[in-house]
Amino acid sequence: MPSLKRGTDGNIDDGAAAIGLIDRRTFLKWLGTSLAMTGVTACGRPPEDSLISRTRDEGGREEAVFYATTLCAAGEAVGVLVETHQGRPSKIEGNPLHPCSGGATGPLLQAAVLDLWDPDRSPAPRYQGNVATWTAFEDQVLTLLDRYRNDGRALRVASGPLLSPTLLAQRDALLARYPGSRWHVHDPLGEDTARQGSMLAFGAPFTSRYALEQADVVLSLEADLLDGSPAHLAYAAAFARRRRANAGATMSRWYAVEGTPSLTGAMADHRWILASSRIGDFLLELARALGVDVPADTASGIDPARMAALLDDLTSHQGRSLIAVGRSQPAHVHALAHLMNARLGNVDRTIRYRPSDALPVDFDALCDDMHAGRVETLILLDTNPMYAAPADLSFHDALRKVAHTVHAGLYRDETGMACQWHLPLSHALESWSDARSTDGTTSIVQPAIRPLYDTRSIHECVALLSGATEQRGRAIIRSQWSQLSDKAWESALREGVIQTERPESTAPAPSNDVAAYWTHATPSSPLELLFRPDALLHDGRCANNAWLQECPRPLTQLTWGNAAMVSPHLAAVHGLANGDLVRLGANGRTLTVPVWILPGQTDTCVTLHLGYGRTHAGRFGNGVGVNANVLRSHDTGWSCAAAIEPAAGHVELATTQSQDRMEEHQPVRTVRFDASHANTPREPNATPPSLYAEPAASDYAWGMTIDLNACIGCKGCTLACQAENNIPVVGPEEIRRGHHMHWMRVDRYHSGTPAAPRTFHQPVPCMHCEHAPCELVCPVGATVHDSDGLNVQVYNRCIGTRFCSNNCPYKVRRFNFLQYADLDTESLKGQRNPDVTVRNRGVMEKCTYCIQRIEQAHIAADRDSRPIRDGEVVTACQAACPTQAIHFGNLRDPGSDVSRTKRSPLHYVLLAELNTRPRTGYLARVENPHPSLDGEQA
Amino acid sequence: MAQVFSRYAGFYARLALIALLVLTTSGVLAWRALTAERHTVNETVEQPVPFSHKHHVGDVGLDCRYCHASVETSAQAGMPPVSTCMTCHSQLFTDQRMLAPVRQAWISGQSLAWRRVNQLPDFVYFNHSIHVAKGVGCVSCHGRVDQMPLMRRTETLSMKWCLDCHRDPEQQLRPREHVFDMAWTPKDQRSLGIALVQAYRIDRAKMMDCSLCHR
Fold it and tell me: Could you read off the pLDDT of A667-713 as tens digits, one per residue?
């Protein structure tokens, strides 16, 4: 037998020599043995666990500890409570004491904790792409900055919007140290049109704050009060309070006029579709009808009956109405709305003004100076213009003309790659800071964990750059708040809000001279391209957050990518189907994108969402969707003339819901508001007989009611559930196969015509049927009822037959087809909730009503031998909900909140005819249309 | 016609059967050895410091809660911080070699890592506080710790062992005031247990729920 021992030539290296020692027979023996051993080694003993004795008693280590802090998301600072387990932040809850939260959070804040543990965060400073140290940076850059001590005109700093009072003070110190230097603000999603509108109307910048509890009639002109605007959590809560159909209550009426569907439009009693550029004309028409002296205009084309109804509501609710304008509308529309609110007597009633301390967005000025070669050193703080700057500013070319560039950010993103220096910033959960919300509330940001990497906070970076003597994060913030006594400081940290006197603002008088500032929009093209922030990714800063990427967009149910939203009519004209590629042309540039047909979209508008198409976001965010900033220009920020033409090709977009009509089952029910029927007791339903065994009576019967009249469809519950219950992400491929894992899904339905539909949202968790069909078919008893009547899933029994999922009429069960949970990435383990099992491949899972929270309440109550109090168990979805649409509690207690909702005449359950007796029920949506428009579609 | 089987066929068949038996047995034994628990029942576990419960509990008379402070309020009994050791050992046995790791930890601020003796699988959620509150003595699960010079596990901690008590809690309950008493023995456990199940309002239906321990 020829042996390998001889080899092929004399130059055998060591590895080949080792191979040469083995002949064929021995090789096969070892192969067989190693195969046999593979099976054995697959089952290893569990890793040894250590019990750590800390040196000093720090107290409270065994149970979850909550810290009050502040997180900034979508231009607003919101007070939150960070849940930590053994020092690891794992979950965000709202801070009930903070007026911008009121205890609620919403999807962005829920996902913020994942950014902290993101394995792609920048761990160390870099110089020219090589890993460097902070000391090297100090040596090099501080010497460089010394030359600007006398003349700093060539030194520029750019940052995002400054919400922190300390950072504003530090900015002043930096500008004073380098005289002539400038600090620019870059904010792709800024409220700059609102600011300019306020300048037109009042001559000074004011921020508006709406008191929606006081408003009986609300007209929203592309103002996405419930989802996109700052303070939207507080607005959503106020909206829900005024929409309760209680006896004797007066329900508010909402009108929305918009070019592209929004969550506010979906909740409004009347949603009128109008091209974004015609909304100014509409407001002008309304102003004239109200008797305001306005210039003549072209008619907006709105139905006179609708206009009459709106006029009737506005005039009959003077002082109790509100006209709100969104940032996508030009400044003069904002200015006219200020005047009309003043005429309607709404100022200081439904709208309050506060002098704005926000800096104007002047990033284009910086780019001009860069192009002209007037900038020598540029420091970019936590902003990413390489990705987000409008293409016409050609920031890429401008940056090449700058000799020294420094970028500081959480990630080494597009801008970090293009700059010479990159400095890693600490996450908000790792750093000291402070923040001022749009309503003037100030609060402290305190760390919940030490920095995971060699990072510094933005304050420490600015202190370093301006040569401040104090460069430690906590001391910087403490000295900014030196007027607080130690006791007041402690209480600000504990409560998460600084109790300060807020100056009473005097309402300014708006300018009456509308003709002076009114500019007639002349649509130059039949088609408008609208840019909107993505519902979850916003400007794309968190594009590497896999939870946000995988969470279905509320109105489209799209995940992992964006698309051009077109109306059904426009799609028919061009022969387009969902996912077909089109070439969009705008501002002299073109972009190829897939289309998505969105009912309710204006026929003359195409909407493209920002936040996608990142190239250096990280492993999850890279190359997802297309970058809409390529088509954007800095002077027409939110819309521009566009051309659309079909292109060859098709993309299969990942969506979680293919059916959007309700058909005969009517899962979402609606009724007309009628104050008299609100307290009519419901006829007790005769419970049909059943062959299922009746469960034994016990002290507790957990149940849930979801109020569809309050649910705005924001998906906060979906993400709260994901964070609480260690739900893995599966990626776009698996979503396309229908393998999504969200325990709490929010279904979206359309009714009426595709051109002008009504849109409904319906959160669907497990129904926890009393007669659960899933339980009968499980061959191993892995899904059973417990004594509280919960339908529980026992992961360690489950063998993965999936019979239960097939027999579930509500399709709420989720199966781990693959090993979705990432067991290898070390940093992601830090986020997981230690009270919930991490499921492996081959196991069925579903909503548990947050059994871990129920059991903790049981144990706490049993320890004291008392019953569980109503409200003691709060599920994760319930806690996160901005509108408190979710009620949860003990059905055996007739006085509990959830029992009251079950007695409501609006209560119903899904697929009642199946007699599964679900514990999860719904309250029907109540609509309050204007009597003269009753019956109109949308 | 030639023989179909050679004269050794029977021998080879027997040989093959024996080989199969040997392979299967050794495979099973190897698998069991690899997946077995790290420490068997009653096997002492080596620790960074040879801490003696016998000395501290049996001889000195420390209460369990002096070190395991969160046992009444939390799921975990809690491991004492080094500062607890130093309350005495900053004065006593300060020159003992075996206490060097404790002093080292105290000076350097580095934590001490003890090896776990009683380990449950990750999908089991055990809570100390509720067992203590309902009158399950430390001895019931941990044995006579006051007689152990070095710590060892005395029970299997298997699911069957848990359920034996959850099905029939009367056999283990004791008055709350005797939970931490190592030497307490009942006069009539059965009638005492029945009375305590009533008195401590133990919901026997709930005791058998899967969701009680698995979430």
Answer: 999 888 775 555 455 555 667 788 888 777 788 999 999 999 999 99
Query: Encoding tokens for residue B18?
Result: 């024996």
Q: Say what the pTM is.
A: 0.89
DSSP 8-class letter at A540: T
Structure tokens, A490 = 């402690």
Q: Find chain B residues with C-beta within 8 A of A851's C-beta.
A: 211, 215
The candidate with the shortest Cα–Cα distance to A879, out of A726, A719, A737, is: A719
Task: Check if A859 contacts B (Cβ < 8 Å).
Answer: yes
Beta-ladder partners of A672:
A927
Q: Where are the alpha helices (DSSP H) in A4-106?
A: 14-20, 24-41
Q: How many CB atoms lie within 10 A of CB A711?
A: 26
Tokens of B137: 């003595």
Q: What is the pLDDT of residues B20-79, one digit of tens each?
A: 999 999 999 999 888 777 778 888 888 889 999 999 999 999 999 999 988 998 898 888
* B chain contacts of residue A40, beta-carbon cutoff 8 Å: 27, 30-31, 34
pLDDT band for position A299 (50/70/90)?
Answer: confident
**Selection from A260, A265, A271, A328 nearest residue A607 by Cα:** A260
pLDDT confidence of residue A158: 94
Interface of A with B in 839-858 (CB under 8 A): 848, 851-852, 855, 858
* Contact (Cβ atoms closer than 8 angstroms) between residue A152 and residue A163: no
The answer to which of A357-371, A570-584, A726-740 has the lowest mean pLDDT is A357-371
Please name which of B80, B145, B66, B87 lies closest in space to residue B112, comparing C-alpha atoms: B80
| A271 dihedral zone (left: phi>0; alpha: psi -120 to 50; beta) | beta
Q: 């006579």: which residue's tokens?
A: B144
Q: Is A51 near chain B, with CB under 8 Å? A: yes
Distance, in Å, from the CA atom of A793 to the CA atom of A783, rounded to the nearest integer, reads: 5
DSSP, residue by residue, chain B: ---SS-TTHHHHHHHHHHHHHHHHHHHHHHHHHHHS-SS-TT-B---SS---HIIIIIIS---HHHHSTTTTTSSS--PPPHHHHHHHHTTSSTT-GGGHHHHHHHHH-PPEEEEPSS---TT----HHHHHHTTB-HHHHH--GGG-SS-B--S---HHHHHHHHH-GGGTB--GGGTT-TT---SSHHHHHHHHHHHTT--TTGGG-GGGT--
What ipTM does this complex have?
0.87
CB contact under 8 A, B74 and A43: no
Residue with structure tokens 């005097």? Answer: A506
Q: B67 at the A interface (CB within 8 A)?
A: no
- The DSSP element (H or E) to which A75 belongs, if any, is none
Q: Are the beta carbons of B79 and A53 separated by less than 8 Å?
A: yes
Quote the CA–CA distance of B212 and A28 in Å, as a whole number.
51
Contact A154, A374 (CB under 8 A): yes
User: Given pLDDT bands bounded at 50, 70 and 90, which one contains residue A301?
Assistant: confident
The tens digit of pLDDT for each residue in B93-136 reads 888 888 999 998 889 888 888 888 888 888 899 999 999 999 99
Measured between alpha carbons, how far is A618 from A639 in angstroms, rounded to an integer?
A: 29
